[in-house]
Amino acid sequence: MAKYNILMHEMVPEHWLIPVKEEEKILKSLGVTKGQLPKIRKSDPVIKTLEKVKGEIEPGRIIEIVRKSRTSGIAKIYRTVMGE
């Protein structure tokens, strides 16, 4: 059975690993700390798929999720990767 890339499914929003150099800029623009961001588990299928492309993603890294909507346009949300 062939493996399926869940990031290619139309119902899964885009997920991007934010470069470490840009994390502080994003946090400052949002007016929050990393600990105040919603969390996403390292065991989440999307994170596991991203790791196949980007290599291991350490807890504490920030993921940008881009959701597209016909009514509200584009919304960017951020999550902090947490351990298992």
Offer a quick outline of the entry.
With 84 residues, this protein is of the alpha+beta class.
Description of the molecule:
The chain has a single domain, classed as Eukaryotic RPB6 RNA polymerase subunit, CATH 3.90.940.20. Helix content is about 25%, strand content about 30%. The protein has helices at about 20-30, 45-55; strands spanning about 15, 40, 60-70, 75-80. The termini are far apart. The mean pLDDT is about 90.
Number of domains: 1
Q: What structural category do the secondary elements indicate?
A: alpha+beta
Biggest sheet statistics: 4 strands, mixed
Tell me the CATH superfamily.
Answer: RPB5-like RNA polymerase subunit
Architecture (CATH level 2) name: Alpha-Beta Complex
The tally of helices reads 2
Strand content: 25-35%
Helix content: 25-40%
**Strand order in the largest sheet:** 1-3-4-2
Arithmetic mean pLDDT: 90
